[in-house]
Amino acid sequence: MRPATAAEALRGLIRVRPHGWLTDPLPTSSAAAADRLHTALAHHGFRQASGAPLRVLKVHAHEASYNGELVAYALVGHCPALPGLLGSADASRSLLIDYIPHPVDFTAPAAVAELVGAVAAVHAAPTSLAPELKGAFDAFRLDRLAASSAPVWLPEPAPRADVIGYVRDAHGGDAIPVGHLDLKSEHARRREGGALVLVDLETLRPDITPLIDLVTLGAFLRQAGRPLPGADVLALYRDAADQHGITWTTGALRAALTAYQRATGLDTLDGLTDMPHTPRHSPKALAMEPTAPALALVRTVLDTLELDGPPKHLTGRKGADAWRYGDWAIKTALPGARGDLAHEAAAYDLLRRQGRHPGVRHGHSELGRWLALPWVEGAPLWDLFAPAREGSATEPQRTQMREASRAALSALREFHATGWIHGDMQSENVIITVRRGVSFIDYDRAHHPDLPRTMQPYRGGLVHVIAPEIAARLLATNESEHVALTPQAELYALGASLYWAWTGTRITDYRGDPAGAHAELYEDIAAGRCRNLDRDRPWIDAELEGLIRGAVEPNPVYRTYGTDGEQT
Q: Is domain 378-558 annotated with CATH 3.40.225.10?
């Protein structure tokens, strides 16, 4: 069951105070309470409370709570998303605050975005701190917090460094993080002019990151009758924070929240680190169950290779299947299946003659065609980047991703220099081997001057990584016309594949459904409707971003294979 209140959302993190902890509670008798009220009113220059409410008088029983709210107002009280502090009186531990008259109707379409915008505005408020106060809060700046010891109350202090690092990347090292707003529906009000305001700053602290408020936002919205998936909460917050110069990416937010949970012992992140409902599956088709004819065909392959036992089925689509048996990778194609195994066998034979591959075995019968080749031990680029998409990448994994990207681009440069064009460059077809080498697989669309052209016209590889100039040619020609693939276009495909593998998001900002008609997708690709890597990246990585940006330059002439700037 998902948390119903902010307190429930913070299970595992919050610590319940023991009974009787408050040594000087507020009076409970009417007479004593009235006397306390009159004393506080007098401290603010009032004789008595009367007439329509114009201000709120808040009296604290606990001195630390009073001082904490004063500190919060000093840090963020100038934010328009908060009520103004009109005065304070230490003697009565009281605050005089603007009265915000109207409740918020959360059935209004824009109310949720306004709420999240108000939270982001509070988080950004310390950046415009009054000059005379900056020195007093210097110890709370993120650069200083990064060098300080972890608080003793953290059950796992090690991940705190990751949390601060992510928040510092988003806010800047000079920023002062604030968090722990008391988010509940009665604390969201509207001014006379309609602006949404968050009241009650008692719990806000400068030594707590803003992440805690993302954890409680989901429960708040459920209480208000506007439940949202965690991914939508993150997207709203990221966009609102960006308006204040806080540059979170979705991946970095997920990673920061995961580290925050580990550090604090928080029971649940309430779906915040879940992937969006839009499926971000592997670029290759999901495996379909092999058909009876496909099983019959692969059995003949095993007999020919003198292998016993059933192979493992990997993928299958439209009569073309991939299998693994021990050290063998096996591809089968029923009559009329997609792909061209005869062409792929010829490509592997040419690679063997060039000393680039150990060679394959292949054959055909009335059942179909087959190809068997040595299994390549390693990880596809898509799998290697999985921790980035899941928000759990460690520093060694990030280094590995950067090195793998550099190696893949270098391998493609060398491949092109020998006259080859792969024809279906995508992250699943680039294997980073156990010895950190690079192996390309699936050559059924390959091109080489010494290789006969495929029987079918070339019409591009994986749609979502096609270069804009190829998409334009596909739009301008009919299905029976061959479209030549250039090294520059294939370089774009690898760069777009790296973008997708790292961010979990396709590089093109489609106007419609990414699973829609190819012609519609080609129009958006050809128009250069690229997404913003600064927004989609899971973290800031200047080298990896440079590799991707260089490969996907809109002008093919300026595309590069790596940070050395070598162009195609």
A: no
Give CATH superfamily name and number for 292-374.
Phosphorylase Kinase; domain 1 (3.30.200.20)
Instruction: State pLDDT tens for residues 186-203.
Output: 999 999 989 999 999 999
Provide the 3-class DSSP secondary structure of residue 369. Answer: strand
**159, two tokens:** 């991940």
- What secondary structure does DSSP assign to 46-92, as a single string? -S---SS--EEEEE-SSHHHHHHHHHHHHHHTT-TTSPPEEEEETTT
Rounded distance between C-alpha atoms, residue 115 and residue 221, angstroms = 9
Angstrom CA distances, 38 to 26, 43, 47, stand at 14, 9, 7
Tokens of residue 170, six digits: 């988003």
Q: How far is CA 324 from CA 315, 321, 329, 371, in A?
A: 10, 10, 5, 12
Rounded-to-integer distance, Cα 549 and Cα 524, Å: 19
CA angle 59, 63, 64 (to 5 degrees): 120
Query: Token pair of 259, please?
Result: 């580290």
The mean pLDDT value for 28-53 works out to 77
What is the pLDDT, as a whole number, of residue 156?
86
How far apart, in whole angstroms, are the C-alpha atoms of residue 286 and residue 519? 23
SS3 label, residue 330: strand
Of the candidates 477, 498, 491, 479, the one whose C-alpha atom is nearest the C-alpha of residue 543 is: 498
In angstroms, the CA 222 to CA 214 distance is 13
Q: Two tokens at 11?
A: 């299970």
Average pLDDT score over residue span 72-98: 93
Residues 513 and 403: their CA atoms lie apart, in Å, by 33
**Whole-number Cα distances in Å, 197 to 6, 89, 126, 329, 383:** 18, 24, 17, 62, 45
pLDDT above 70: residue 293:
yes
The sign of the CA dihedral 148, 153, 155, 160 is: negative
Q: Encode burial over 277-302: b for 16+ CB neighbours within 10 A, e otherwise.
A: eeeeebbbeeeeebeeebeebbeebb
Q: Work out the average pLDDT over 432-447.
A: 91
Where helices occur in 461-517 by DSSP H, the ranges are: 468-476, 487-503
Spatial contact of 305 and 374, defined as CB atoms under 8 Å apart:
no
Per the CB < 8 A criterion, the answer to whether 214 and 167 are in contact is: no
Give the predicted TM-score (pTM) of the model: 0.62
Query: Residue 279: what pLDDT?
Result: 41
The burial class, CB within 10 Å (0-12 / 13-18 / 19+), for 46 is: middle
pLDDT in tens, 357-381: 999 999 999 999 999 999 999 999 9
Query: Whose structure tokens read 């991707």?
Result: 548
Catalogue the E-assigned strands of 123-244: 188-190, 196-198
Q: The tokens of 302 are what? A: 């095993």
Helix (H, G, I), strand (E, B) or coil at 472: helix
Give the model's pLDDT for residue 198: 96
Tokens coding 136: 């007093």
Mention every residue, 6+ apart, whose C-beta is less than 8 A from residue 511. 520, 524, 529
